[in-house]
Specification:
By secondary structure, the chain is an alpha+beta fold. Helix content is 32%, strand content 21%. Strands 13-14-12-11-15-16-18-17 form an eight-stranded mixed sheet, sandwiched between helices.
Length: 691
């Protein structure tokens, strides 16, 4: 009986795998196991899941044990002990020698003040401090002093590791979050409903995003260990790509769209599931494991895989499980399939840079089609590996305060050069640079004239290394005697030596299309994408370079005309605005008249948003309290400048003012701060005079 109890106690505290079978610990563990043997609530902390062993046989094992110190509410922690009963009770998180058994009122106060208050919270789960012998420090003095080496610790809610310090646990959880490993990966939440065994010997994890279920392998977050790579942090990228495709589907359908790097196939499945007959989706991947996973995910979402005559469905399929859409799954190199077949929409999202696939993407893309490129090589894009940047993008750059916009313009320059080699031009619809990726969406304009116009927008950038003022060099092939004259700053005259560097070539044109972004905002409302609506609204204000937010209200059913790239495009409009005549009887302008007006607006280059932005904290004055950002935007507007916030930097201000004008307004409305009062200064001066 003693051996059985000892085994139960070891299984109860197996998370850290650091317990030593010593003679002195056995009596303590046995005493604790006798007291906790009658607690039925501890068995609920483990989550048994059916998995398979190496021989392929299914067995019921514990995939992720949640320790008793991990609770969501204080009531859950108090339920570990029957506080309503009579007699003395032991603390479930402290050994007997540390906290002796006491009455209920004292034990409740002990749980609240010691364990519950000293916690680390992560994903609504609180990891209370634990004093049980789960973690032992290695002692070099012998086994007789092992008990004195026990330390308080926390149990990680994700990987069950034990960590002593609270700050170390917070850093450990941040690393889990950066890898996309959260509590949802190990619990039965809405994002991960369950795990089911498969014949391959690995348990698939079911994840739901935007109404689409996909199966994931346990090592899906490590691209070096799995082919079916999936990153939860790219959800914003997938939603932006989906909205851009939804906007194109309103113009003409059906569209032939390609997800060149399918991996799990979640992006192509979202296209087919929500856009239905408006798109003909092709999901491609070179890996056999990915292709198999994509087909299984198609059946999981009741989507038919083209090429299967019978339309293989799930077992017991009926009218309710009939295919809602169809996709084509292809196992081919991305460059090969883009050379062989034409598409209206192409999305490139390789692991790293996408420059190796740009030529093939623009080879067969149809006129007025869209190419979206996602680059995740942030090391080279964000000026951390300058030699890799020069090798991949052919650009000379340095680390600047506007490095994210510099990365977006660098990717667009590579896209424009690849399109020009195929006698095609581009119209930039969207450029987003966030922490983990750079996304650019361009519309393809066929013809050598359009290619020449796009090539003219590739320029060198002159950047001052002292004040970080920047300006695009004027177009032309003539050698200028002194390039410093083009910089608005006077650093070269006041500083010795060379003060500026030449960066590029970069894309010097606009980064956004306001009309396209407004239609993307409508798509976010229609498909219930509340997560990216603030981002899209920020992009609209940034495209117009204004702080005003005249966003449309949901409720769109009619169509209007809008001009993009010189082409009249059908867009959604409110029902009240769809009538051609108002109450006064006057005829509203038709689509042709609106097109003429918009062509005039487009020809006005002054309405394009200014290039780059300034950080208000980077150029703040020492010893001065600068105004709030929104107030500062108002002051710049009153001074006659165009201003807006930018998604590239939360403290950045996009404006057409020069850096000198920017600092002048900032200095004017900054309040000085003093470490000592003026009276003390006068008193000290009087003392000096008397001495």
């Amino acid at each position: 009986m003693a051996e059985i109890k000892e085994g139960d106690a070891e299984q109860l505290h197996q998370e850290d795998a650091n317990i030593k079978d010593t003679g002195t610990d056995t009596s303590t563990i046995l005493a604790e196991s006798v007291e906790r043997e009658q607690l039925p609530t501890q068995s609920a902390t483990t989550t048994p899941v059916k998995t398979e062993d190496k021989n392929g046989q299914t067995s019921s094992t514990v995939v992720s044990e949640r320790h008793v110190s991990i609770q969501t509410t204080l009531e859950g922690l108090e339920m570990l002990v029957d506080l309503n009963g009579a007699g003395r009770k032991s603390c479930p998180l402290c050994p007997e020698e540390k906290f002796k058994a006491c009455y209920s009122h004292k034990l409740r106060r002990h749980l609240q003040n010691l364990h519950w208050k000293v916690y680390v919270e992560f994903e609504s789960q609180r990891m209370c401090i634990c004093h049980l012998p789960c973690r032992q420090l290695k002692s070099s003095l012998g086994s007789d002093q092992t008990q004195s080496r026990l330390v308080a610790h926390y149990h990680c809610v994700v990987c069950s590791v034990t960590i002593a310090r609270k700050t170390d646990m917070i850093s450990h959880l941040k690393r889990h979050f950066n890898k996309g490993e959260t509590e949802a990966s190990y619990s039965g939440s809405s994002d991960v409903p369950f795990e089911q065994p498969v014949p391959g010997g690995q348990a698939y994890e079911i994840m739901k995003e935007l109404g689409t279920n996909v199966q994931l392998l346990p090592n899906h977050t490590t691209p070096q260990k799995t082919d079916t790579y999936f990153n939860r942090k790219m959800k914003t990228n997938r939603q932006l790509v989906f909205c851009s495709l939804a906007v194109l589907a309103e113009e003409r359908n059906p569209l032939e769209c390609l997800d060149a790097f399918g991996a799990t196939g979640i992006m192509g499945l979202q296209w087919a599931k929500h856009l239905r007959n408006s798109v003909k989706v092709t999901i491609n991947d070179l890996s056999e494991a990915c292709v198999k996973m994509i087909k299984e995910n198609c059946h999981l979402n009741h989507i038919r895989v083209e090429g299967t005559r019978t339309g293989r469905q799930l077992d017991g399929a009926g009218d309710a499980d009939s295919p809602i859409a169809s996709v084509e799954v292809v196992k081919m190199d991305a460059n090969v399939i883009m050379h062989l077949r034409p598409f209206d929409y192409i999305h490139l999202d390789p692991f790293g840079t996408a420059v190796n696939y740009l030529d093939a993407a623009f080879r067969n893309v149809r006129n007025l089609g869209i190419v979206s490129v996602t680059s995740t090589d942030t090391g080279s894009l964000y000026s951390k590996s300058l030699n890799v940047t020069l090798r991949h993008y052919g650009c000379q750059i340095v680390r600047t305060e506007y490095y994210r916009e510099l990365a977006a313009r660098m990717v667009l320059a590579s896209v424009a050069r690849a399109a020009a080699r195929c006698n095609k031009g581009i119209e930039v619809l969207l450029a987003v640079a966030l922490e983990h990726f750079v996304l650019v969406v361009v519309r393809v304009l066929r013809g050598p004239t359009q290619a020449d116009e796009s090539s003219k927008k590739l320029r060198q950038l002159l950047h001052c290394q002292w004040c970080e003022e920047r300006v695009f060099l004027k177009p032309g092939s003539m050698v200028e005697e002194n390039l410093y004259r083009q910089l608005p700053c006077q650093c070269h005259g006041s500083m010795p030596g060379k003060t500026a560097v030449e960066l590029g070539p970069l894309w010097a044109g606009p980064l956004f299309n306001t009309g396209f972004l407004r239609r993307m905002l409508v798509a976010t409302v229609q498909h219930n994408m509340e997560d990216i609506q603030p981002l899209v609204k920020t992009l609209i204000c940034e495209a117009d370079c204004t702080t005003l937010k005249p966003f449309p209200v949901p409720g769109f059913s009619a169509f209007s005309n809008q001009v993009e790239c010189g082409v009249v495009i059908k867009t959604l409009q409110k029902v009240e605005e769809a009538d051609t005549s108002d109450q006064s009887g006057k005829r509203k302008p038709t689509g042709e008249d609106c097109g003429n007006v918009l062509k005039k607006v487009k020809s006005d280059t002054s309405l394009e948003h200014p290039a780059f932005y300034y950080s208000i904290h980077r150029h703040s004055i020492r010893g001065m309290n600068m105004p709030k950002l929104n107030k500062f935007l108002q002051y710049l507007t009153e001074a006659g400048f165009r201003v807006s916030r930018t998604h590239f930097d939360p403290t950045g201000v996009r404006t057409d003012a020069t850096l000198a004008q920017f600092k002048e307004v900032l200095t004017k409305y900054s309040v000085p701060t003093y470490s000592s009062t003026p009276q003390s200064n006068t008193v000290s001066s009087d003392r000096r005079l008397t001495l």
